[in-house]
Design goal:
Blueprint lengths: L9 E6 L7 E4 L13 E6 L2 E10 L12 E2 L8 H13 L4 H8 L14 E8 L9 H13 L1 E3 H7 L4 H9 L3 E8 L19 H16 L3 E7 L5 H14 L3 E5 L7 H13 L4 E4 L5 H13 L4 E4 L11 E6 L17 H11 L3 E6 L4 H8 L4 E5 L10 E6 L11 H12 L3 E5 L8 E4 L16 E3 L4 E3 L6 E2 L13 E4 L3 H11 L5 E4 L9 H10 L5 E4 L12 E6 L3 H4 L6 H13 L10 E6 L5 H7 L3 H14 L7 E9 L2 H16 L5 E14 L2 E10 L2 H15 L7 E6 L6
Parallel strand pairs: 9-14, 9-15, 10-12, 10-13, 11-12, 13-14, 16-26, 17-24, 17-25, 23-24, 25-26
Antiparallel strand pairs: 1-2, 1-4, 3-4, 3-5, 6-7, 6-8, 18-22, 19-20, 20-21, 27-29, 27-30, 28-29
Adenosine-5'-diphosphate binds next to helix 7.
Amino acid sequence: MTASGNTDSVVDVAVVAPLDKTLSYEVPEALRDCVKIGSRVKVPLGRRQVVGYVMAWTGHGESRLKSVLEVIDPQPLFHEQHARFYLRSALYYDYPPGEAIRTALPAGLSAPDRNPTILKDKLYRVITREDSPSGEKQKKILALIRTQQQMLLSQLRERFDAPHAVLQRLVELNFLQVETVERCRDPFAALPIETHHPVVLNASQQGAVDKISTALQQGQYCPFLLHGVTGSGKTEVYLRAIARGLELGRQALVLVPEIALTPQLVGRFRSWFQQHNVNLAVLHSGLSDGERYDAWRQVARGDMDVVIGARSAVFAPLPNLGLVIVDEEHDGSYKQSEGFRYNARDLAQLRGQMEDAVVVLGSATPSLTTFQRCRSGQVKKLDLPERTADRPLPDVELVDLTLHEGDKLLTQQLEDALKSTLEAGEQALLLLNRRGYAPFLLCHDCGASIRCPNCDITLTYTQIKRALRCHYCDYQIVPPESCDRCGGANLLPEGMGTERLEEEIRALFKDTRVARMDRDTMNRKGAHHRLVTQMTAGEIDVLIGTQMIAKGHDFPAVTLVGVLNVDTALNLPDFRSAERVFSLLSQVSGRAGRGDRPGRVLIQTYAIDNYALDFVARHDYQGFADLELEQRQALDYPPYGYLVNLVLSSNDEAKVNAAADKLSIGLSHDNHDVDVLGPAPCLLARLRNKYRRQILLKSQQREPLRRQVVRLKQLKEKIPAGVQLTVDVDPVDMF
Ligand code: ADP
Ligand code: ZN
């Protein structure tokens, strides 16, 4: 059933349209040889022509079937095992399969008539013979090609002026053969490669590598959690495991949270693989459509040994996958928050199962879901309990904000610590998880704040651009002179943001070099990379940032980490808020003291007694996880229960309310294994001018929840036009 050379003439096609199922199409005689599983095809759907993906051959059809019109790419985009994986993923997240696959494939491939061009090149191969041609230029060019047996026209153009005519002549004289080949763009060709300094693994690292190697040898699905404290050398373990897999002839897939934010990790991978002659594909959000298309096709052809990328790389069509690594597996960015709402960390495990691959989930602060799977024996735990080279973890102190007076953002303790750090010529990181100058402008006469007209949220004030902006819908205005409500002239910025912190640091420490890393400063291409380079070179003294600065950076000269305020995050009405805060603070603390000098962390908070903070201060992941899991179990929350979040939205408030009530009654009817919670207004009850209501489905088992999702398909029909329903299976954010 796999090849097109058989007698099957009908294919299942996942069309790019909001349909739950694949559709059958007849493959006309003329196309039988070029239609393959994974082919992107053009097919009729109603009166339109749409793109679809061939998922399987299914025998003979009735004569009524419509026909495949055209095969778009010269080579299939994925293989049979990937087709099965994509379909399972779409089914699990209740998303139309064709649209799910469109999301999975490189951007720029969804319009039937527009395609990134495939670049062409000419490959010249020597024909074995002793003699040489007579012309001088002919001799020179041939001599060079003979040293390498074959060369591309593009390579020869770099060495010779207009070589084409001479090459043509050499072909005519029968010294060379020529063929047309595809040329793949190499987006990294221009970047320098850092040298990788080999290290001797310590005992825990070696132990982890050995266990992963044994599993690789067995060639079966085997999930691991690599639980290593910050700075314990997880990257080195990944590299050795990948090398072992490659020796066994199996390819590797490496997922990282946000590739633009992990230049150091990617740099280390590139240098290591360059030295070991490994073909690495980096699927980067900054690639052009053409570059991404090239990389994808190389991967599908089996030309790439290792693929590294952010969440969507989980779909990369490596034909012979043996190892999947999910670095920082706790990271929220593995969950896609719109459209096809998959979680790449979970899909990595499904894929490992389906393709007999070893899966390594790495983190210093594993998600409680993964940790619980270790406790129940479904995932094997590998521990790296210490930092490399006997470096200690930093000292973490909590600073009580209730004792802090005045309106400076830094407490005296943090100011003093920063002062001594700077005097010692060391670097500091300051985390403030709020960009802009202040979260709102408040009228000090009547207490009104300025809110977004489209969303249920205050507008963030940025002083640099002198603007009030909504972080959700991008609505923007110039700050008014006076309050709309009372006409008073005392509109003042309230609360703190990174801009304001930067201003305060500059005022306190005059000659200090300060930089800021947040969505506002990092949106230009290469900005993040430049900042990381400057930090590493010691050209910045204080780096201020949002949670971006907590991610994976390895700056050896950072000895102080200050956290300005964690209380907003702690108080979010979400059962995962403590887990998120624990993870964020442990990660950012882990940036301190990674070099020769020990690190120190100060966390300012109003909630000095909070248990999560206490565990952070003691570097006690296990203690935190045990306590938190106990609470989750008592309430049947994940990982002990399962959730599906339904969000209804509409411009019409009455309509959305009625639809939500009706849907909730329908779902509750005759059903005992699933709790139907709500409908209730979403935390962001209005977003981009839409009113939003949510219904949360909760169950101790997956199966009944699945049945409800299937049932939802019938109930969906009754939702009136103008009301949208989104289904989020295993939701992460429920705002
Ligand atoms: P993690 O990802 O666990 O936080 P990294 O992989 O970034 O840690 O490693 C931290 C630092 O330790 C890196 O600079 C790395 O080169 C170094 N390192 C890794 N393994 C060893 C080792 N066995 N001996 C000495 N240094 C090591
Ligand atoms: Zn808005």
